[in-house]
Specification:
mainly beta, 10 Kd Chaperonin, Protein Cpn10, Chain O, 6-stranded antiparallel beta sheet
Length: about 110
Amino acid sequence: MERWIKHDKIEDHPTTLKPLRNTVLVKLDDVAEKSTGGIILTQDTREKEKGIAMSGLLIKIGPNAWEDIGEGAPQVQPGQRVRCVRYGGVMVKDPVSDEEFHIMNDEDLIAAEG
Protein backbone atom coordinates (compact mmCIF):
# COMPACT_ATOMS: atom_id res chain seq x y z
CA MET A 1 0.00 0.00 0.00
CA GLU A 2 1.55 3.30 -1.14
CA ARG A 3 1.08 5.92 1.54
CA TRP A 4 3.56 8.49 0.24
CA ILE A 5 3.32 11.19 -2.36
CA LYS A 6 6.92 11.43 -3.58
CA HIS A 7 8.45 14.54 -5.05
CA ASP A 8 10.81 13.57 -7.88
CA LYS A 9 11.27 16.64 -10.09
CA ILE A 10 13.08 19.71 -8.85
CA GLU A 11 11.39 21.83 -11.54
CA ASP A 12 8.01 21.12 -9.93
CA HIS A 13 9.06 23.07 -6.83
CA PRO A 14 10.32 26.55 -7.75
CA THR A 15 11.19 28.60 -4.71
CA THR A 16 12.65 31.95 -3.76
CA LEU A 17 14.08 30.49 -0.54
CA LYS A 18 17.88 30.28 -0.36
CA PRO A 19 19.63 28.15 2.28
CA LEU A 20 22.49 29.92 4.06
CA ARG A 21 25.76 28.68 5.56
CA ASN A 22 25.71 24.89 6.03
CA THR A 23 22.00 24.32 5.48
CA VAL A 24 20.03 22.54 2.77
CA LEU A 25 16.49 23.00 1.46
CA VAL A 26 14.43 19.80 1.16
CA LYS A 27 10.89 19.17 -0.08
CA LEU A 28 9.71 16.33 2.16
CA ASP A 29 7.35 13.69 0.81
CA ASP A 30 3.70 14.08 1.74
CA VAL A 31 1.55 11.40 3.34
CA ALA A 32 -1.33 10.38 1.08
CA GLU A 33 -4.84 11.01 2.36
CA LYS A 34 -6.06 7.68 0.94
CA SER A 35 -4.49 4.27 0.56
CA THR A 36 -4.16 2.80 -2.94
CA GLY A 37 -7.27 0.74 -2.12
CA GLY A 38 -9.25 3.93 -1.47
CA ILE A 39 -9.32 3.75 2.32
CA ILE A 40 -9.21 7.23 3.86
CA LEU A 41 -6.37 7.43 6.38
CA THR A 42 -7.10 9.11 9.71
CA GLN A 43 -5.17 12.20 10.76
CA ASP A 44 -3.47 10.16 13.52
CA THR A 45 -2.31 7.55 11.00
CA ARG A 46 -1.03 10.25 8.66
CA GLU A 47 0.90 11.94 11.48
CA LYS A 48 2.48 8.63 12.54
CA GLU A 49 3.46 7.85 8.96
CA LYS A 50 4.95 11.31 8.53
CA GLY A 51 7.27 10.72 11.47
CA ILE A 52 8.46 7.30 10.34
CA ALA A 53 10.27 7.95 7.08
CA MET A 54 11.65 11.39 6.53
CA SER A 55 12.53 11.37 2.87
CA GLY A 56 12.26 13.93 0.14
CA LEU A 57 13.85 15.83 -2.71
CA LEU A 58 16.94 17.98 -2.20
CA ILE A 59 16.10 21.37 -3.72
CA LYS A 60 19.05 23.65 -2.86
CA ILE A 61 22.38 23.51 -0.99
CA GLY A 62 23.84 26.33 1.12
CA PRO A 63 27.27 27.73 0.18
CA ASN A 64 29.15 26.10 3.10
CA ALA A 65 27.40 22.73 3.23
CA TRP A 66 29.80 19.90 4.12
CA GLU A 67 32.70 22.37 4.23
CA ASP A 68 33.28 22.11 7.99
CA ILE A 69 33.95 18.36 7.84
CA GLY A 70 36.61 18.82 5.19
CA GLU A 71 34.87 16.82 2.50
CA GLY A 72 34.97 19.62 -0.05
CA ALA A 73 32.27 19.16 -2.67
CA PRO A 74 28.79 18.22 -1.45
CA GLN A 75 28.08 14.49 -1.37
CA VAL A 76 24.65 15.03 -2.92
CA GLN A 77 23.30 17.36 -5.58
CA PRO A 78 20.01 19.21 -5.98
CA GLY A 79 17.47 16.91 -7.58
CA GLN A 80 18.58 13.82 -5.63
CA ARG A 81 16.21 12.03 -3.26
CA VAL A 82 17.50 12.04 0.31
CA ARG A 83 16.67 10.68 3.78
CA CYS A 84 17.02 12.85 6.86
CA VAL A 85 16.81 12.59 10.62
CA ARG A 86 13.31 12.53 12.06
CA TYR A 87 13.34 15.84 13.91
CA GLY A 88 15.82 17.70 11.73
CA GLY A 89 15.24 21.20 10.45
CA VAL A 90 12.35 23.59 10.46
CA MET A 91 9.38 23.94 8.16
CA VAL A 92 9.25 27.13 6.11
CA LYS A 93 6.79 28.39 3.52
CA ASP A 94 7.89 29.98 0.30
CA PRO A 95 6.48 33.52 0.31
CA VAL A 96 5.58 33.39 -3.38
CA SER A 97 4.28 29.83 -3.97
CA ASP A 98 3.11 29.19 -0.38
CA GLU A 99 4.67 25.72 -0.71
CA GLU A 100 6.19 24.07 2.39
CA PHE A 101 9.89 23.15 2.53
CA HIS A 102 12.29 22.09 5.29
CA ILE A 103 15.57 23.86 5.95
CA MET A 104 18.01 21.70 7.87
CA ASN A 105 21.71 21.39 8.60
CA ASP A 106 23.76 19.40 6.12
CA GLU A 107 24.56 16.85 8.84
CA ASP A 108 20.83 16.04 9.17
CA LEU A 109 20.91 14.30 5.78
CA ILE A 110 21.75 10.67 6.49
CA ALA A 111 21.39 8.92 3.13
CA ALA A 112 20.90 9.57 -0.58
CA GLU A 113 19.21 7.46 -3.24
CA GLY A 114 21.06 6.63 -6.42
